[in-house]
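Workshop exercise sheet. Pairs work together: one partner reads the sequence aloud, the other fills in the structure field after running the prediction. Swap roles for the next sheet.
Pair: D.N. / O.F.
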Amino acid sequence: MPLKITSWNIEHSSRLIGNNLSHINEDRRNRVRNTVLDMNPDILCVIEGPKGEAGIISFAQDVLNGQWEPVLLRTDNQAPGDADPDYDINGTQWIWFLVKPAILNQCRLQSPAVWQSFVGYVSWNVHYWGSLKPERHKHYRHPQVLLVDIGQGHELEIIGQHMKSKINKKQIKRDDDGNIIGEYLNEALKARIKLATEARNIRTYIEARFEQTPMPAIFVMGDANDGPGQDYFENRYLYFDLISNLQGNIINADRFFNHALFDYPAALRWTAQYRDAILGIPASQNKLLIDHILMSQALVGDQLPLEVRAGAGFVEHQAYERANAGASASRKSSDHRPVSIILTER
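Structure field:
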């Protein structure tokens, strides 16, 4: 049977659980539910999910009526009142996998401790502007890894990631030539360097997996936060592309990751719209692709019982628009659109 995997950043998902919701959040909850029902994924990677296991269990029940179940690190001998296992995620925006009950027994979540063992560290040095004295950085939201048994001795590995936010509250200042200067520039560049090192850490984990398995079947998906202002800073100061850090080196073609939307129509290849204060572009004219699905070569080869065929990746524009018809900005399900990919039986 085919397997559909969807990644969706569900804005303020924690506001959609519990009783006594505001009229706005009640409306949003219905729109999120209708979007997921319309998409009907087998596996849903939720970005900006609720904090903690109790939160995602409530989300699965309150929003999705138990039709999808969360995959947890909790073991059978842990009581519901016990403290959460270590997901190594800070803040209130967590990464979760929800799956249809029929495949729950095929799925298990990998502890972040395994990731850290494979790469050899938890945090890492970051040298800003060639400084000899480094600062330490780590994932604020540690990537989560779902392992899925797809039969015939094969396992699918799905990495859900949500990289550091680039929110910058410093005042934008420019010199006489229009170049951005001062604290805003420094804050923006530091955030982008941190993003790049997070992508490098993900890639280091992937490289470790290739040292263990000849052709691992790996997806990387989620919100890379590579949105507003990206071209301005990357072209002038950093000279790298965030997604390239994840994809790897094309010279090592067997380890290079394809983008699920590479053959999707360019006009539809976007997932969010934000005003760009740097470039002076209103949100209505600034369509951005910041939610991604990347995949290893094994998924387009001939070794697995499931394969990714041409045109298998797409943005869920139709489901999003149907569920949000007539909604004001505050009542929309999310400020991100979901991205999906379908694996087909060989």
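Discussion prompt: The CA atoms of residues 199 and 246 lie 6 Å apart. What would you look at next?
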